[in-house]
Structure formats: structure tokens, C-alpha cells
């Protein structure tokens, strides 16, 4: 752990706290809402999410991959779970039946990944998620996050129209944080995310005092084990959750690989095994509280590149503060009052850096008119699916819809198939002969 502790460490810790919180708070709330849970149960899920996310983050940096990379709820699994919940009526199932099937699939997948880590299955994992597959994943993750935060910057009313003043304020905040990042002195640049969040929050309250922000972390909680539903054997739901969780391993490989590039190190089997073990353990624990499965956040690389604060000490402190907030509900209630548009605007700037990570992952690789397909096909198909309404796939079997409508998942799957089925080196050698 870093020995230096001072003003930079304190502000960096608060910056990490805001970053982790902003990436966590909406996940349990949205899942609980879709599954029709009472407010007290959603409050319990939110508090559990804050506590376990903070602890998982600390354990990953300490005994897992050992990089300052946030451990949080998987965006891929979040989308799948929300999709299954919204499809309850189409499936002819109750929310508890779907939730119970998800719990079974998640726990089975966690057991498989634990076995994989215990019996040195890391080589198999790396062979599936090759460098090119990880590049595709990084590009698609960048686009997915940017789409999410761009839409989140714009406040849309009940009539489906944009609230112009608040939306313009969000874009002004993006410009403000970008200028801090690009033209400020190193100290200001490193804390541009924190300055943007705090200044944006204060400015929002001053300009839009009439806009009430709902605080969600109330003191009233209702503890329920498996709040989404008791584990069951709804085979279709179990299979969807199980497969999606296995695909979630791509996050681990991409995060550690990106961390290696940023910190100029090379992680071994020990780091991969430790990371998978911690992710699986916290996923199983979180499953009992109705939480979306955990994963290392590859997007943390963009945050690190933006802040240039690579120390682990503030990272650990930020995780610990998040756990404390989960234990003290009034603190969570205060942080939950942050305007959503402000958080999205600032994170939009932070995640622009992730595009550079994706680009650099190609390591200067040159493509010709044939080999470009190994990158362009999965990336562009994935982006196209991201921008296709889910309703378009209504004629497909309901259990296939969560996969076919997920651009990130389908792009990675296409990339895996292309890497395994096509001899790309033959096309490269042919190009060299022709030249």
C-alpha cells in the first residue's frame, strides 16, 4: 500500500468515492423497480450494494488483480436481468419465478468459475478471450457507456421531450470538465472529475432549485433473502443467466489486460485466479440480496487515465467510505440526492478516455481489405444492435431476446467465432505476397 498520505490522497479518495457511487446507485434501484419490489426492500438492496461493492473493490485491489480497478455490478448482466424482468408477461411467469431462475443460474455459473480458477483454467480463458476479442470488447464497451451517459445527460420529461435548460446545463458541464482536464494545471486536471461533480451539483441546486431529486437510501429497510425470488429450476431462465455469467468473464480478462498496459506490468495466473475467486464469492453473496453479479470495471481504466492518480491508497479509502455509507443510511440518502444528469455529464468526460484504451489495445496492428472484417464486423454489428429497439426482436423466442438484443454480448460472441473459425494469418501472408 502507498505510504504517501496527504491532501492529494484525501481528495483522490473522495473522487474515487463519487466515481464508485455514481456507477453503483442506479443498478439495485432499477432492478428492484422492474421486479415490483416495495420501497423498503429496494432500500435494503441499495444498502447491501454499497456495502458489498466497497468491500469487493478493496479485496480486488488487495488480494485479487491488485490494480485500482473498481469492482461493481456487471453492465452486461444488468441488461440481461432487466430484460428478463420486463419480459415477465411475455414469458407467462411471475417475477419471483424469473428472479429465482436468475439466482440459480448465477450461483451455478459462480461455482463453475470457482472451479475454473481452482484448477488453473486461466489458459483456456485466455484462449477464448484473445487480444482481438478483447479489443472488440473494449470498443463496444466504450460505445455502450457513451450512449448511456449521453442519454443520461439529457433530462426527458413525461411527454418524451427534452428539458432544454437542464440539458444545456449538462452540455455546459461537459465543456467545463473537459477544459479542466485539458487546460488546467496538473493538480486541477487530476481532480477534474471531483471538481466537476461538486461544482455541477452546487450549480444545479442554485439554478434548478425547484427540481426535486429523490433520495433513495432511506432508513427504513426490509431484509429479505433472495428478494427477487427463491432459487428454482426454471430451466430456460437458469440457462440464460448461466451463459450470461460465463460471458461476464470477458470483463475480468479485459480489465486485467488493460491494467497491465496502463501499469506496464504482466499479470500471472495468481492475479487472474484471485480476481475470479473474489468476483465469484461476492457475486454469490450479493445474489442473496438480489444484487446484479459483480465484475471488475474495465471502465475504471478511463477514470485512471483521466485523473492520472494511480495510487492504491485513495482507491482503498474510497471503497471503505462507500461501505461506511451503506452502513449509515443518512449518508447514502444525501449522496443519492446528486442530480442524475450531473453524474452522467461528468462520467461522459471520464469515459472518453476509454476509447484511447480500446485504440491502443490494437498495438498498432495494420488491417487490409480482408482482415479488417475481424474488427469491423463484430464492432459495427454490436453498435447496430445497441441502437436497435428491443421491440424489433419480439418475434424471436423470448429466451433468445436478451442475447440477440445485447450489442455488447453479440459483438463479443461474433468476434470469438471469427477468431476461432477464420485463419486470419493466411490473409495477412497473402497480402504480403501480393505486395
UniProtKB/TrEMBL annotation:
- Transmembrane intervals: 16-37, 44-63, 75-95, 102-122, 128-150, 162-182, 188-208, 235-256, 276-297, 309-328, 334-359, 371-393, 399-418
- Source domain of life is Bacteria
InterPro entries according to UniProt: NCS2 (IPR006043)
Where located? Membrane
Task: Give the primary localization class.
Answer: membrane
What Pfam family does this protein match (any one)?
Xan_ur_permease
Q: Name one GO cellular component term.
A: plasma membrane
Keywords, ordered alphabetically: Membrane, Transmembrane, Transmembrane helix, Transport
Question: Per UniProt, what is one GO molecular function of this protein?
Answer: xanthine transmembrane transporter activity
Bilayer topology reads: Multi-pass membrane protein
NCBIfam families, per the entry: NCS2_1, PRK11412.1
Q: Which family does it belong to?
A: Belongs to the nucleobase:cation symporter-2 (NCS2) (TC 2.A.40) family.
State the name under which the record lists this protein. Uracil/xanthine transporter
Organism of origin is Cytobacillus firmus (Bacillus firmus)
Amino acid at each position: 500500500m502507498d505510504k504517501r498520505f496527504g491532501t492529494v490522497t484525501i481528495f483522490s479518495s473522495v473522487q474515487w468515492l463519487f466515481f464508485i457511487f455514481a456507477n453503483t446507485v442506479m443498478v439495485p434501484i432499477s432492478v428492484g423497480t422492474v421486479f415490483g419490489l416495495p420501497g423498503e426492500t429496494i432500500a435494503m438492496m441499495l444498502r447491501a450494494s454499497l456495502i458489498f461493492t466497497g468491500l469487493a473493490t478493496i479485496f480486488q485491489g488487495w488480494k485479487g488483480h491488485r490494480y485500482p480497478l473498481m469492482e461493481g455490478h456487471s453492465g452486461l448482466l444488468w441488461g440481461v436481468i432487466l430484460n428478463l424482468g420486463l419480459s415477465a408477461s411475455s414469458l407467462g411467469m411471475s417475477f419471483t419465478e424469473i428472479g429465482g431462475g436468475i439466482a440459480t443460474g448465477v450461483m451455478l455459473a459462480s461455482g463453475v468459475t470457482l472451479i475454473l480458477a481452482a484448477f488453473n483454467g486461466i489458459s483456456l480463458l485466455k484462449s477464448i478471450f484473445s487480444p482481438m476479442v478483447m479489443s472488440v470488447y473494449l470498443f463496444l464497451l466504450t460505445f455502450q457507456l457513451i450512449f448511456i451517459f449521453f442519454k443520461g445527460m439529457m433530462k426527458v420529461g413525461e411527454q418524451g421531450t427534452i428539458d432544454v435548460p437542464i440539458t444545456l446545463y449538462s452540455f455546459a458541464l461537459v465543456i467545463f470538465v473537459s477544459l479542466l482536464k485539458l487546460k488546467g494545471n496538473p493538480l486541477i486536471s487530476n481532480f477534474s472529475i471531483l471538481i466537476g461533480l461538486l461544482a455541477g451539483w452546487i450549480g444545479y441546486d442554485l439554478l434548478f432549485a425547484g427540481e426535486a431529486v429523490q433520495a433513495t437510501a432511506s432508513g427504513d429497510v426490509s431484509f429479505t433473502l433472495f428478494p427477487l425470488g427463491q432459487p428454482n429450476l426454471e430451466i430456460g431462465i437458469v440457462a440464460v443467466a448461466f451463459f450470461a455469467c460465463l460471458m461476464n468473464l470477458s470483463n475480468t480478462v479485459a480489465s486485467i489486460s488493460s491494467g497491465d498496459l496502463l501499469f506496464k506490468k504482466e499479470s500471472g495466473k495468481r492475479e487472474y485466479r484471485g480476481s475470479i475467486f473474489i468476483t465469484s464469492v461476492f457475486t454469490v453473496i450479493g445474489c442473496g440480496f438480489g444484487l446484479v453479479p459483480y465484475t471488475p470495471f474495465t471502465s475504471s481504466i478511463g477514470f485512471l487515465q483521466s485523473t492520472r492518480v494511480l495510487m492504491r491508497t485513495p482507491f482503498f479509502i474510497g471503497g471503505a467510505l462507500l461501505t461506511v455509507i451503506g452502513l449509515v443510511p443518512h449518508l447514502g440518502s444525501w449522496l443519492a440526492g446528486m442530480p442524475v444528469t450531473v453524474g452522467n455529464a461528468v462520467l461522459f468526460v471520464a469515459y472518453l478516455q476509454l476509447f484511447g484504451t480500446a485504440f491502443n489495445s490494437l498495438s498498432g496492428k495494420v488491417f487490409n481489405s480482408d482482415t479488417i472484417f475481424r474488427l469491423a464486423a463484430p464492432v459495427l454489428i454490436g453498435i447496430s444492435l445497441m441502437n436497435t429497439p428491443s421491440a424489433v426482436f419480439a418475434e424471436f423466442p423470448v429466451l433468445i431476446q436478451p442475447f440477440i438484443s445485447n450489442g455488447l454480448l453479440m459483438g463479443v460472441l461474433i468476434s470469438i467465432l471469427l477468431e476461432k473459425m477464420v485463419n486470419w494469418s493466411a490473409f495477412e501472408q497473402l497480402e504480403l505476397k501480393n505486395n
